[in-house]
Design goal:
Elements (H helix, E strand, L loop, with lengths): L2 E4 L1 H11 L17 H18 L2 H11 L3 E9 L10 E8 L2 E9 L6 E9 L4 H8 L10 E2 L9 E2 L4 E2 L11 H8 L4 E9 L11 E9 L3 E6 L5 E4 L2 H23 L1
Antiparallel strand pairs: 1-5, 2-3, 2-9, 3-4, 4-5, 6-12, 7-8, 9-10, 10-11, 11-12
């Protein structure tokens, strides 16, 4: 297993040099260099240094990140204070052919700053395992919980990655769902599984989404973004299975497009 460690500016310059354009989601970058001329000078210096130090293996990794078959985007925040950088989680797992990689943004001084990036190669068929292993450890919750149908078709709050659930309940037996959603989570997040390239263009890309909630004194729950809405008690093994289920759905869509 190979791991590359880059500071935030190095990663930005490397991405510009090999791919150009904005950083891949969910990554962010804010420069700490106040003056434009100083920024451009530092950028040129890093570009020249990377020209002789970047290996062919790292260039291949960046190329896979830019043009993957499948990407898995991971975003998590502190449940009490979503703006706390210490609770920020930004990861991207990608695969193409026989190559797989997990990229992690280390949190900086604010939610938008970065302290650097790591890129680690991995088995392309075990992206889910690597993602779950990289998350903060948490046992599975006590039991599965049935959730109500949200009021709105677009029912997710991207800021804290939580479903916006109506206070009006369609079934009195969903009281457990009410209790579940009223609990303050320690951490919340989303995992998006997205097709890399579609023969039908960007709008033809298949995508799936999972939400997770870590409840204090209980455990981790995963909520697939589809009806019937349920919060699944998820230890590491079950979390991996749930992600792999969504990856399999995207793979199936890719095969259908290519047939």
């Amino acid at each position: 297993m190979t791991t590359w460690t880059l500071d935030d500016f190095e990663f930005v310059v490397l991405w510009e040099r090999l791919r150009e354009g904005l950083l891949p989601r969910p990554f962010t970058y804010i420069s700490r260099i106040p003056l434009e001329r100083d920024y451009q000078r530092a950028r040129r210096e890093i570009r020249e240094r990377l020209r002789t130090t970047v290996s062919a293996e790292l260039e291949r990794a960046i190329d896979v990140v830019a043009r993957p078959d499948i990407r898995v985007l991971v975003r998590g925040v502190d449940g009490d204070n979503p703006g706390d950088p210490r609770g920020s989680i930004r990861m991207l797992a990608v695969r193409r052919g026989a190559n797989g990689y997990l990229l992690t943004q280390r949190p900086g001084e604010t939610i938008q700053h970065s302290a650097g990036f790591t890129i680690t190669d991995c088995d392309p068929l075990r992206l889910a395992d690597r993602v779950v292993a990289a998350l903060p450890a948490m046992p599975g919750g006590g039991h599965d919980v049935v959730l109500p149908i949200p009021d709105e078709p677009s029912c997710y709050d991207d800021h804290v990655a939580l479903p916006r659930i109506s206070a009006a309940w369609h079934d009195t037996h969903e009281s457990l769902g009410r209790q579940f959603l009223q609990q303050q989570p320690a951490r919340v997040g989303t995992i998006e599984i997205i097709q890399g390239i579609s023969v039908f263009g960007p709008r033809g890309r298949s995508a799936r989404r999972l939400h997770w909630r870590d409840l204090p004194d209980d455990g981790r729950y995963v909520i697939p973004n589809r009806q019937p809405y349920s919060a699944h008690s998820a230890d590491e093994e079950r979390f991996v299975r749930l992600i792999n289920h969504e990856i399999a759905a995207v793979v199936s869509a890719i095969k259908d497009q290519r047939s």
